[in-house]
Design a protein that fits this description.
Layout (H helix, E strand, L loop, with lengths): L1 E2 L2 E7 L4 H4 L19 E12 L2 E12 L8 H7 L5 E12 L2 E8 L7 E5 L4 H4 L4 E4 L4 E8 L2
Antiparallel strand pairs: 1-2, 2-3, 3-4, 4-5, 5-6, 6-9, 7-8
Protein backbone atom coordinates (compact mmCIF):
# COMPACT_ATOMS: atom_id res chain seq x y z
CA UNK A 1 0.00 0.00 0.00
CA UNK A 2 1.30 3.47 -0.85
CA UNK A 3 0.30 6.68 0.91
CA UNK A 4 1.79 9.89 -0.49
CA UNK A 5 4.87 8.09 -1.76
CA UNK A 6 5.52 6.36 1.57
CA UNK A 7 4.99 2.60 1.61
CA UNK A 8 3.34 1.18 4.72
CA UNK A 9 2.80 -2.45 5.51
CA UNK A 10 0.99 -4.32 8.22
CA UNK A 11 -0.32 -7.74 9.02
CA UNK A 12 -2.36 -9.25 11.79
CA UNK A 13 -3.92 -12.61 12.33
CA UNK A 14 -6.70 -12.96 14.88
CA UNK A 15 -7.05 -16.70 14.42
CA UNK A 16 -10.60 -18.03 14.39
CA UNK A 17 -11.01 -20.89 16.90
CA UNK A 18 -12.32 -23.28 14.25
CA UNK A 19 -9.15 -22.72 12.17
CA UNK A 20 -6.70 -23.00 15.08
CA UNK A 21 -7.83 -26.33 16.46
CA UNK A 22 -7.05 -29.75 14.93
CA UNK A 23 -10.37 -31.65 14.64
CA UNK A 24 -9.19 -34.48 16.95
CA UNK A 25 -8.45 -32.17 19.90
CA UNK A 26 -11.27 -31.92 22.44
CA UNK A 27 -11.32 -28.85 24.64
CA UNK A 28 -14.15 -27.39 26.64
CA UNK A 29 -16.13 -24.53 25.16
CA UNK A 30 -14.59 -21.23 26.22
CA UNK A 31 -11.07 -22.64 26.73
CA UNK A 32 -8.35 -21.08 24.58
CA UNK A 33 -7.24 -23.07 21.56
CA UNK A 34 -4.16 -25.19 22.04
CA UNK A 35 -0.67 -23.91 21.21
CA UNK A 36 -1.84 -21.11 18.86
CA UNK A 37 -1.81 -17.50 20.10
CA UNK A 38 -5.15 -15.73 19.86
CA UNK A 39 -3.48 -12.76 18.13
CA UNK A 40 -0.22 -12.26 16.25
CA UNK A 41 0.45 -9.16 14.21
CA UNK A 42 3.13 -6.89 12.86
CA UNK A 43 3.40 -3.40 11.45
CA UNK A 44 6.25 -2.03 9.35
CA UNK A 45 6.82 1.59 8.35
CA UNK A 46 9.46 2.51 5.78
CA UNK A 47 10.40 6.01 4.68
CA UNK A 48 12.41 6.38 1.46
CA UNK A 49 14.31 9.52 0.60
CA UNK A 50 17.27 10.72 -1.45
CA UNK A 51 20.37 12.54 -0.28
CA UNK A 52 22.15 13.76 -3.40
CA UNK A 53 22.78 10.66 -5.54
CA UNK A 54 22.20 8.27 -2.62
CA UNK A 55 18.86 6.47 -2.31
CA UNK A 56 18.23 5.97 1.41
CA UNK A 57 15.61 4.62 3.79
CA UNK A 58 14.68 4.38 7.46
CA UNK A 59 12.45 1.57 8.71
CA UNK A 60 10.80 0.46 11.96
CA UNK A 61 8.87 -2.78 12.62
CA UNK A 62 6.77 -3.86 15.58
CA UNK A 63 5.61 -7.44 16.25
CA UNK A 64 3.21 -8.55 18.98
CA UNK A 65 2.10 -12.06 19.92
CA UNK A 66 -0.47 -12.81 22.62
CA UNK A 67 0.01 -15.60 25.13
CA UNK A 68 -0.69 -19.20 24.10
CA UNK A 69 -1.03 -22.56 25.74
CA UNK A 70 2.03 -24.80 25.59
CA UNK A 71 0.38 -28.13 24.87
CA UNK A 72 -2.93 -29.67 23.86
CA UNK A 73 -3.14 -31.65 27.11
CA UNK A 74 -4.92 -29.60 29.82
CA UNK A 75 -3.28 -31.52 32.69
CA UNK A 76 0.24 -30.90 31.36
CA UNK A 77 -0.68 -27.29 30.58
CA UNK A 78 -1.59 -26.69 34.21
CA UNK A 79 1.99 -27.66 35.16
CA UNK A 80 3.91 -26.03 32.27
CA UNK A 81 1.83 -22.86 32.13
CA UNK A 82 1.25 -20.72 29.04
CA UNK A 83 3.85 -18.86 27.00
CA UNK A 84 3.60 -15.15 27.92
CA UNK A 85 2.72 -12.43 25.39
CA UNK A 86 5.62 -10.44 23.95
CA UNK A 87 6.33 -7.47 21.69
CA UNK A 88 9.52 -6.81 19.74
CA UNK A 89 10.77 -3.79 17.78
CA UNK A 90 13.28 -3.74 14.90
CA UNK A 91 14.98 -0.74 13.28
CA UNK A 92 17.04 -0.37 10.11
CA UNK A 93 18.46 2.40 7.96
CA UNK A 94 20.36 2.21 4.74
CA UNK A 95 21.73 4.00 1.75
CA UNK A 96 23.14 3.13 -1.63
CA UNK A 97 24.13 4.42 -5.02
CA UNK A 98 24.80 2.72 -8.32
CA UNK A 99 25.46 -0.98 -7.74
CA UNK A 100 26.09 -0.99 -3.96
CA UNK A 101 24.10 -0.53 -0.74
CA UNK A 102 24.82 -0.36 2.98
CA UNK A 103 22.31 -1.17 5.75
CA UNK A 104 22.57 -0.75 9.54
CA UNK A 105 20.06 -2.80 11.53
CA UNK A 106 19.04 -3.81 15.03
CA UNK A 107 16.58 -6.65 15.63
CA UNK A 108 14.72 -7.03 18.94
CA UNK A 109 15.99 -3.56 19.86
CA UNK A 110 14.83 -3.69 23.49
CA UNK A 111 16.06 -7.28 23.98
CA UNK A 112 12.70 -8.79 25.01
CA UNK A 113 12.94 -12.45 26.02
CA UNK A 114 9.76 -13.77 24.39
CA UNK A 115 8.89 -17.46 24.45
CA UNK A 116 7.67 -19.29 21.35
CA UNK A 117 6.95 -22.54 23.19
CA UNK A 118 7.74 -24.52 26.35
CA UNK A 119 7.87 -28.25 26.99
CA UNK A 120 8.97 -30.81 29.53
CA UNK A 121 11.76 -33.22 28.72
CA UNK A 122 10.32 -36.09 30.75
CA UNK A 123 7.18 -37.09 32.69
CA UNK A 124 5.04 -34.52 34.52
CA UNK A 125 6.04 -35.72 38.00
CA UNK A 126 9.77 -35.48 37.22
CA UNK A 127 10.64 -32.31 35.35
CA UNK A 128 7.67 -30.31 33.98
CA UNK A 129 8.02 -27.78 36.78
CA UNK A 130 11.20 -26.52 35.09
CA UNK A 131 10.25 -26.53 31.41
CA UNK A 132 12.57 -26.09 28.47
CA UNK A 133 11.80 -22.92 26.55
CA UNK A 134 12.12 -22.05 22.85
CA UNK A 135 13.03 -18.33 23.03
CA UNK A 136 12.72 -15.73 20.32
CA UNK A 137 15.91 -14.43 18.73
CA UNK A 138 17.80 -12.18 21.18
CA UNK A 139 18.94 -8.67 20.32
CA UNK A 140 20.99 -8.71 17.14
CA UNK A 141 22.63 -5.80 15.33
CA UNK A 142 24.97 -5.36 12.44
CA UNK A 143 25.92 -3.92 9.09
CA UNK A 144 25.05 -5.39 5.69
CA UNK A 145 26.88 -4.49 2.52
CA UNK A 146 25.57 -5.49 -0.89
CA UNK A 147 26.85 -5.12 -4.41
CA UNK A 148 25.20 -6.06 -7.71
CA UNK A 149 27.39 -7.43 -10.48
Amino acid sequence: MRTRGRPRMGNCCPAAPELREPPTVRRRRGEPSAVTPEFKGNVTGRYRFSVGDYKSFAQASLLHQSSATSTIDSATESILGPTPAFTTVDFSAGTGAGNWNLVLYIENAFDKRGQLNRFGQCGATLCYEEPRIYPIKPQNFGVKFGQKF
